[in-house]
Design brief:
The chain has 907 residues and is of the alpha+beta class. It folds into four domains: 268 residues, Alpha-Beta Barrel (7-stranded beta/alpha barrel), CATH 3.20.110; 98 residues, Substrate Binding Domain Of Dnak, Chain:A, Domain 2 (Up-down Bundle), CATH 1.20.1270.50; 244 residues, Golgi alpha-mannosidase II, domain 4 (Beta-galactosidase, Chain A, domain 5, Distorted Sandwich), CATH 2.70.98; 86 residues, no CATH class. It has 19 helices and 47 strands. The strands form twelve sheets. The chain has a ten-stranded antiparallel sheet. Strands 22, 23, 24, 29, 32, 35 and 36 form a seven-stranded antiparallel sheet that branches. A hairpin with a 2-residue loop joins strand 26 and strand 27. Helix 7 packs across helix 15. The longest helix has 29 residues. The protein starts with a helix and ends with a strand. The N terminus is likely disordered. Bound molecules: 2-acetamido-2-deoxy-beta-D-glucopyranose (NAG) (8 copies). The site of one 2-acetamido-2-deoxy-beta-D-glucopyranose has 4 residues, from loops. This is Glycoside hydrolase family 38 central domain-containing protein. InterPro entries: Glyco_hydro_38_C, Glyco_hydro_38_cen, Glyco_hydro_38_N, Glycosyl_Hydrlase_38.
Length: 907
């Protein structure tokens, strides 16, 4: 009796703080009221926020409840929304919120700008969107998130696991994993385990019971739930028993006696008071009768749960493999979204890479005491952050929502570009001269080049190159030029530059080699009409050739374009799902082909009825640049089509291939097999597709013969046939896949008054190499692709840039061979602070650093929100059976291979 008395007493006074110590036989359940507010999906971000019962109301509502009752907790996930709400509040409310955070009633899970997708995002963009959210929380609340929260993403990547640890998370929570694997793990009590994403980093992982993030079935009391079944005197006992049974069942799948469960679904909690009231009735019933139920339920946060769990001293299994592709049904693999909406994926990737360089340039300008407008960086960060959301970059939002994301980024990009233009004016002591980028696509011309040339004006092409220590290496610039003009290109000293022009179907492209010189950031060349005939630019002559489906391109590989027809059953391809009827077949008929053979460039061009292809190589190397223009896909026969590119090689890869995870580390894949689980793969094509965002590679057993394909945006890909790499380029469908979008993936554009499927220019780089001896080669191409120089066109007879003083000029010590380290710099909280990162992209080899004496460096976790030493000291340790290895300890001034280090630098 005494025991129960104390128990009740405890419940009343401090919502259970010590209960479990008093009676260790009780099952203890933490319920997590949490937000799941998609940053755009069926509606746009603004619609979701301002809607009746929308996010604004949701946050108002739960905050009010937390203020009223200290036993209530809430976990907010999406900082994008929280910032919108925060900016509307008065000081009284702001103080209240700060108090709630201090009480630990309000926690932020993940704390990213959004819950980013894990398949189609690039690693730099993940870091940036997490940093953006963490910076907001640090700046406003001095708050450091400690829990990762990826409960809705469609599969989980090795990189996200790795970064979760590097960001200072003690654990992360996942929802969706392969349905067969879930059952296995439930049986073996392996829904909690430790992921070792590499030799140094591990993260405790919790898989939510039954795979989602909602309330236990029958206990979703939200006013938005039409099936809600409120508690009454009549059903209270029955409902309490039901919940008790549910948790006793759940207990069988986890180790120990502490359980966790989410409360809430998409856009729930707009009437938190009624939700809590209902739940309270059942919780009180169960807690007040612990002799019957042997269970204590309380509201809490994942952070509290993880701390309690950590004290249990239980040993957990470990895992190395990632979780792709996700499937929730034997015939439904979520590998379609790896490719869905390639134009949006391409745009986000391109602007993302542009932004990395721009931030560095911007910081350098600012360090030279030139006035900059920081809101411009903030706007583009937020727009790109939003785009990483798991229904944005994935291509699984409605068309008009995708258009909204496009506009958001485009507006911010234009502002950023204007800022760059004004920097260039400032640095060249000119004013009001427009410097603008122009983009390549199929038939459009670059006005900023064509128009002035037609007026006999000189065009200055400013080259912003943020690479480091790559002096002397050669790269190639490519520009569309007017077809009827003879042009001349001069370097900065006025010397004519060599170049070659290829004209195909009235479209002319100029290729010029460029020696990299990293002693400064800004370079330029001059393009003008050639009247004196002293140009060193040569036009190459075409030679007719024949290309068929088994033709070896440049005697090296066969390039095929094929089509998968989508299944027309109720389980069909959609924005998420890939489900082809059978093997891919040839796509389109061959028309014509020509070849150009210059000193600089060799190019093969061919047309099929469905597409056009340019395959270029420079200096006769075994590196091939493929540009594919994919025309509108014909679906007039009501048949969905998914188009792929195949590279056929002679490599014997024996069902093994490698795909890099968010462009970061390579993951080994084996056809029809998962390393960690015994899973039957019923869809032989879709179930073997993996996300490729960076590169896919095959090699023979000895590794001395390898082929890798790099892509310019996220795509699905695989190696289904010996020696063949395939990547999916585009999908145009006629059915929805019933995963909630309820809109058919059929992107269109209007061309000459006709509605067509959207057309695309997509690029790949194919590399043949010796993987054993050239371990870093693949990374070299990734490095070059990411750091392609930015070209700005302006019209003026001449230009002269003043040189910027660069405090980081010697920060990265020059290697004896090629440099593969990226340096990131962006403004931080204080005016004289910068967030600085170094990513050593080498697979082998250390990057040495030399810290400039006049600057203070403080090493931090990946998102810059806490000192690394503090995190390493405070982090929770978990026991598992992972064999401990003696790793090389990198020194403070070393960055190991494929490692990233982050500092806050004060100037
Ligand atoms: C601050 O905002 C809250 C919530 O909107 C409101 O209830 C309160 O009256 C406001 N306080 C002041 C001083 O304006
Ligand atoms: C919340 O729901 C309760 C019960 O349905 C209702 O009485 C109350 O008016 C609602 N509150 C708001 C703010 O809508
Ligand atoms: C059950 O416990 C709650 C507090 O946890 C208390 O307010 C309530 O009065 C109790 N009910 C009964 C029937 O004992
Ligand atoms: C944890 O468990 C291990 C054996 O499983 C035991 O050796 C150790 O003392 C325990 N630690 C604590 C703090 O209970
Ligand atoms: C900038 O241009 C102005 C005139 O346009 C000139 O007076 C001034 O000396 C120039 N400054 C530099 C640093 O070249
Ligand atoms: C080509 O680019 C221009 C502007 O850069 C754009 O307006 C046009 O829609 C693009 N065309 C295609 C086919 O992508
Ligand atoms: C460009 O210069 C050439 C040669 O000086 C001249 O023939 C032509 O008319 C000029 N074109 C324009 C548009 O000024
Ligand atoms: C499809 O391709 C696979 C792999 O090449 C092959 O084993 C299978 O026989 C093909 N199926 C059909 C129906 O052609």
């Amino acid at each position: 009796m005494l025991l129960i008395f104390i128990l009740i007493f405890n419940i009343q006074c401090n919502y259970l703080g010590q209960v479990s110590q008093i009676r260790s036989d009780l099952i203890r359940v933490y319920l997590f009221p949490h937000s799941h507010d998609d940053v755009g999906w069926i509606k746009t971000i603004n619609e979701y926020y301002f809607d009746y019962h929308g996010v604004q109301q949701i946050i108002n509502s739960y905050i009010e409840e937390l203020i009223k009752d200290k036993s209530k907790h809430f976990s907010q996930v999406e900082v994008a929304y929280f910032k919108m709400w925060w900016n509307e509040q008065n000081n009284t409310m702001k103080d209240n919120v700060k108090q709630l955070i201090q009480n630990q009633q309000l926690e932020f899970l993940s704390g990213g700008w959004c819950m980013n997708d894990e398949a189609t995002t690039y690693y730099e963009d993940i870091i940036d969107q997490m940093t953006l959210g963490h910076k907001f929380l640090l700046e406003n609340f001095n708050y450091v998130p400690s829990i990762g929260w990826q409960i809705d993403t469609f599969g989980h990547s090795n990189t996200q696991a790795l970064f979760s640890n590097m960001m200072g998370f003690n654990a992360w929570f996942l929802g969706r994993i392969d349905h067969q694997e879930r059952l296995e793990r439930e049986k073996k009590k392996e829904l909690e385990f430790v992921i070792h994403s590499d030799e140094e980093n591990s993260i405790f992982t919790h898989i939510n019971y039954y795979g989602f993030y909602s309330s236990p079935q029958g206990f979703d009391f939200d006013i938005s739930n039409p099936k809600r079944n409120y508690v009454s005197n009549e059903n209270l006992e029955q409902k309490s028993e039901g919940l008790d049974q549910y948790f006793k069942q759940q207990c069988k799948s986890y180790r120990g006696k502490i359980l966790a469960h989410t409360l809430g679904m998409d856009f729930e909690w707009s009437n938190a008071s009624s939700y809590f009231q209902q739940m309270d009735l059942i919780i009180n019933r169960i807690n007040n009768n612990s002799h019957k139920f042997n269970m204590i339920i309380e509201y809490g946060t994942p952070k509290q749960y993880i701390q309690a769990l950590n004290q249990q001293n239980v040993s957990y299994p470990f895992q190395k493999e990632d979780f792709f592709p996700y499937s929730d049904h034997p015939h439904e693999y979520w590998s379609g979204f790896f490719t869905s909406r390639p134009s949006f994926k391409g745009y986000v990737k391109r602007i993302g890479r542009y932004f990395q360089q721009v931030k560095r340039f911007y910081s350098l300008v600012q360090m030279n005491n030139i006035i900059c407008d920081e809101t411009i960086i903030q706007d583009l960060s937020e727009a790109l952050g939003t785009a990483q959301h798991h229904d944005a970059i994935t291509g699984t939002a409605k068309q008009y929502v995708i258009n909204d994301y496009f506009n958001l980024i485009h507006k911010a990009y234009i502002k950023m570009d204007n800022q760059i233009s004004s920097f260039l004016n400032y640095l060249s002591n000119t004013s009001e001269i427009l410097h603008s980028q122009c983009q390549f696509n199929e038939s459009d011309t670059c006005d900023s080049l064509f128009y002035p040339l037609s007026q006999n004006k000189t065009v200055i092409v400013t080259i912003i190159d943020t690479k480091i220590n790559n002096d002397g290496q050669q790269e190639y610039l490519k520009m569309l030029i007017p077809k009827n003009l003879n042009i001349k290109v001069d370097d900065e000293l006025g010397n004519p530059i060599k170049g070659e022009i290829i004209c195909i179907n009235d479209q002319c492209t100029l290729y010029i080699p460029r020696q990299i010189n990293n002693s400064k950031l800004l370079h330029y060349i001059k393009i003008m009409v050639d009247f004196d005939n002293n140009s060193k630019i040569i036009r190459l002559d075409p030679k007719l050739i024949e290309i068929k489906k088994d033709t070896k391109i440049f005697d090296k590989f066969i390039l095929n374009y094929k089509v998968y027809l989508s299944n027309s059953s109720s389980l069909s391809s959609g924005a998420y799902i890939f489900r082809p009827i059978g093997n891919a077949t040839d796509y389109g008929d061959y028309l014509s082909a020509i070849q150009f053979s210059g000193q600089i460039i060799q190019q093969i061009y061919f047309e099929k009825t469905t597409l056009k292809v340019w395959i270029s190589r420079f200096d006769n190397q075994d590196i091939f640049y493929i540009d594919t223009f994919l025309d509108s896909i014909d679906i007039s026969d009501q048949q969905g089509r998914e188009i792929i590119l195949q590279i056929h090689t002679d490599i014997i890869n024996d069902n093994i291939f490698f795909t890099n995870s968010n462009g970061f580390k390579f993951q080994k894949r084996r056809l029809n097999h998962r390393e960690s689980q015994n899973i039957k793969i019923k869809e032989k094509i879709a179930g073997n597709y993996f996300p490729i965002n960076g590169a896919i590679m095959i090699m023979n057993k000895d590794g001395n013969s390898a082929c890798a394909v790099l892509n310019d945006r996220a795509q699905g890909g695989s190696s289904l046939i010996q020696g063949v790499i395939e990547l999916m380029l585009q999908r145009r469908l006629v059915r929805d896949d019933n995963k909630g979008l309820f809109e058919i993936l059929d992107e269109q554009e209007i061309i000459k008054g006709k509605k067509l499927g959207i057309r695309q220019m997509i690029s790949h780089t194919v590399i043949f190499y010796n993987h054993e001896q050239q371990t870093n080669l693949l990374r070299e191409f990734q490095y070059q692709q990411d750091l392609q120089p930015l070209l700005y066109f302006s019209t003026q007879p001449s230009i002269r840039y003043s040189v910027l003083q660069d405090l980081f000029q010697e920060f990265l010590i020059k290697q004896s061979d090629i440099n593969l380290s990226k340096l990131y710099i962006e403004p931080w909280l204080q005016k004289n602070q910068y967030l600085v990162r170094v990513h050593n992209m080498r697979e082998e080899g250390i990057q040495k650093l030399k810290f400039p004496k006049e600057l203070t460096f403080q090493e931090t976790t990946l998102t810059g929100n806490q000192e690394l030493k503090v995190w390493e000291h405070n982090r929770l340790k978990w026991s598992d059976k992972y064999p401990k290895e003696q790793n090389y300890q990198y020194k403070y001034d070393e960055v190991g291979p494929m490692r990233i280090k982050t500092w806050i630098v004060t100037i």
